[in-house]
From TrEMBL:
The keyword Membrane is assigned to this record: no
Protein family: Belongs to the short-chain dehydrogenases/reductases (SDR) family.
Protein name per Swiss-Prot or TrEMBL: Oxidoreductase
PROSITE patterns listed in its UniProt record: ADH_SHORT (PS00061)
SMART domains to which the protein is assigned, alphabetical: PKS_KR
Amino acid sequence: MSKIQGKVVVITGASSGIGEATAKLLASQGAHVVMGARRVERLAALASTIETEGGSVLFQQLDVTNIEQMQSIIRLAQTRFGQVDVIVNNAGVMPLSPLAALKIEEWNRMIDVNIRGVLHGIAAGLPIMREQQSGHIINLASIGAYAVSPTAAVYCATKYAVRAITEGLRQEVGADIRVTLVSPGVTQSELAEGISDDEARELMKTYRRDALPAFAIARAIAYAIEQPADVDVNELVVRPTAQLA
């Protein structure tokens, strides 16, 4: 039997990319998956696929910048399945641009989704996990949490923040709750489609030439979850073999 069997897992940003792949993989291993994203029609289609394959899944529309919506999806998981074992704070945006382009609305959107969204996931789930005296919070960062590159200053700043928040949480929660940071290298996803800056978009085409499939990151997330309760995988950096930086 899979060590993931029966675990209740909430995944944000589950309508595509890493979130979608993680939902499929964990459901196939027997988890009760609760998916959230803004594009509810995509969630419905994904849920139908998972159910057809015998998986257990619920979904709800979710904007992670809205704390009430985040609390609502956590309550849904707890009400339907009696507990919340894992929260995967995956939702993120990446509209890269040089700072001189002054795309302030895009900066604010990255701060709201990439940082505030993670904090909302923690705020909604941590009280339940403390009461249960068990749980696992997995935050998605990026290799951008370790080094800054041109056009990515604000994006990297948000991922450095996620890295710092995750480490602070790990130190604070004690022995009952596990905390993991997963930092993907170049991965196939829709993130680059949100880039409005011409220079950044062209740079990203070259940068993303060698990209991991989203399932590679899903497998890393599953690896962290399936460890025994007294084993906390704190940080995973997963790059394509060809990616040097």
